Amino acid sequence: MDKDSKQAKQTINWLGGKYHGETIQGIPHGKGRFLLPNGTKYDGEWVEGKPEGRGIVIYPSGGAYKGNFKAGKKDGFGIYRNPDGRITRGLWEKGDFIKPVAEEDLNSAEHPAKKREEIIIIEDLTFTYKSGKGVFDLDFSVGKGEVFGFLGPNGAGKTTAIRNLLGFTRPEQGRCRINGLDCWSESAKIQSMLGYLPGEMAFFDEMSGSQFLDLIEQMRGRRRNSRRKDLIERFELDPSGRIRRMSKGMKQKLGIVTAFMHDPAVYVLDEPTSGLDPLMQNTFVDLILEEKARGKTILMSSHNFEETYRTCDRAGIIREGFLATVEDVHSLKSSQRKAYLVTLGSKNDLEKLRSAGLEIGKVSKNTVEVFVAGNYEQFIAALAQCTVLGLDVATQSLEQIFLKYYGREVV
User: Fold this and answer.
1) How far apart are CA 395 and CA 382, in angstroms?
2) Residue 309: closest CA among 204, 401, 226, 389
3) Which fold has domain 337-395?
């Protein structure tokens, strides 16, 4: 098939179900999501109307398969989660399980993970709630001096994974380690080296900010230090007032000071800039970059892709409890299509852009949204034929990053 005939994402009827995603000549081809009437869902790659490449299929029974497909069947390495939670991993061929095997030999001295000191390690982590949601077979690690972005929409499993990492819940399968210590059985030892900022913070509202910080330092067995004072000044926090009278942003600053003031070696931060104004967000980014330069290890959940891009080395995207990908952040951004807002001189110019084969988005009066994914020469050549009154780059949202891995709009 002609690759140039590939179309933008659309919804079509296919094989008795609904398909939403990329197509070629009217059939699924590229990234897409497929839903059958019986509840079976497939998210992943398609080739000429059949699942082929990487994908995830979730069955009505509660079972799920994550791995490779060929011509619509499981083929290659994959992981199958049974409805009862048991995990089968290994090689598949034409839909049939062939033999158990590890995806890669982690004991190999040539494996990249052996070339750096791993501080946070999550291995085969599975934790399921009664509803059937949870996290399944999570595998990733964070090296010393690395900032790792943990991304996904609400309900994807980020907080569940973090709760297991903090030792708040016990994994059904697999384990989590921080600096060689087991997060469940040795959680008390981990706390002294850990800075944790929860997504939803709970304070003693009748206390003042200073009283709360004093309490935390007493619990940690530490005294006031210059770092606490520096952080308070840096984030322009007035800790003298009662917490119940503080705004969302002030409480967030108090949480940041609490997590950072004992100068821990490892940070686990869940939506750390939620509620902060843009100036304080930049202050926080600067702090993260400084901690990274000092060799600190940081796992950071975020909904702000620009924040992730500026601070993180790698990012993991979680989808419905499964880890969809782990990629270098710069590669993650460069792989996405970019949206440009072009202000044109006339309606004829709009027709010129359409006839050039460019992907056109929203049109508002004489301003048109144009999506570009590597075809910059084509884009520039088309603009040269038009009267261009203005050109802006639309801000790339985290949702646009998710689209590549979800095959659908993410709320």
Assistant:
1) 22
2) 401
3) Alpha-Beta Plaits (3.30.70)
